[in-house]
Amino acid sequence: MDIKEYKLKTENTKQNHPWEFARLEVVHDLLSKNLNKRGKLNSTNSLTILDVGCGDGFFLEQLSKRIPNADYFAVDTAFDDEFIDFFSKKYASSNITFLSEIKSDFLQDKHIDVILLMDVIEHIEKDVDFLNDLTNLSGFDDETIIVITVPAYQSLFCSHDTWLGHYRRYTVKKLRNHLKQAGLKSEKDGYFFTSLLLPRLIQKFKELIIKPNLDNVAGIGDWNGSETSSKTIKNILILDYKWSRFKRKFGIRLPGLSCFSICKKQ
Q1: In sequence order, what are the beta bridge partners of 184?
Q2: For the chain, where are the E strands, in sequence order?
Q3: What does pTM read for this prediction?
Q4: Taking a C-beta distance cutoff of 8 angstroms, is the pair 80, 57 a contact?
Q5: Sign of the C-alpha dihedral, residues 160, 131, 144, 56?
Q6: In the chain, fewer beta carbons within 10 Å around the N or the C end?
Q7: Each residue of 187-211: pLDDT tens digit?
Q8: Among residues 19, 18, 27, 6, which one has the least CA distance to residue 147?
Q9: Is 135 exposed, middle or buried (0-12, 13-18, 19+ CB in 10 A)?
Q10: For the stretch 233-265, what's the b/e string if a residue is b when 16 or more beta carbons lie within 10 angstroms of its beta carbon?
């Protein structure tokens, strides 16, 4: 969850949106298969995983339970000392170091195995330059993989994107092109969450008729659904992803509200 959305709720009432739980399943599936193929998923050697633009740390904390053989670094420029102290205490049982910037002394003599960019680069005006900077980090080499998720289709840009400070939405083709400019090559990519396209189209249509008030936009930080509704939505989105994954095996790419890429240096 973006820190801007996180601030909408107090800790006593905040709950994560089912979309976040479903995206966790998507990324874990993609990442674990890649690491397993490379013999690193259950390796005795500890992995180094950076989550850049980590938000509230929920994603990384959940991932650390599934991939325990790793040192985790949660980085977000929105962190101040208070946030770092709060999340460090909240996730004290997890092997996560919280940082407001990537500091070389924390990564000294470490090989970076994975960089996670979960809905991050759409917030960055010069996304190609940002990706270039990541590839120049100490410990980044030809074996480092970057896992990226981004919102899909510029035609679906709406008040939620404006409120969150997005510069753009992507197609897989555009994402590949930006990666190529940064010296990266997409090894696997596609779309996910097809079922969310219709609700977004409806929202976009409404906003063409009635101009939205950005003061009333809350994003997923305002989610207060019941446990039953949250679980139902999460399961629908997971089934949605699995159906898209199945169709990709036959060369059929379904559209979706988000797209992903797993990439490495060219």
Answers
A1: 265
A2: 47-52, 70-75, 96-99, 114-118, 145-151, 184-192, 258-265
A3: 0.89
A4: no
A5: negative
A6: C
A7: 999 999 999 999 999 999 998 888 8
A8: 27
A9: middle
A10: bbeebbebbeebeeebeeeeebbbbbbbbbbbe
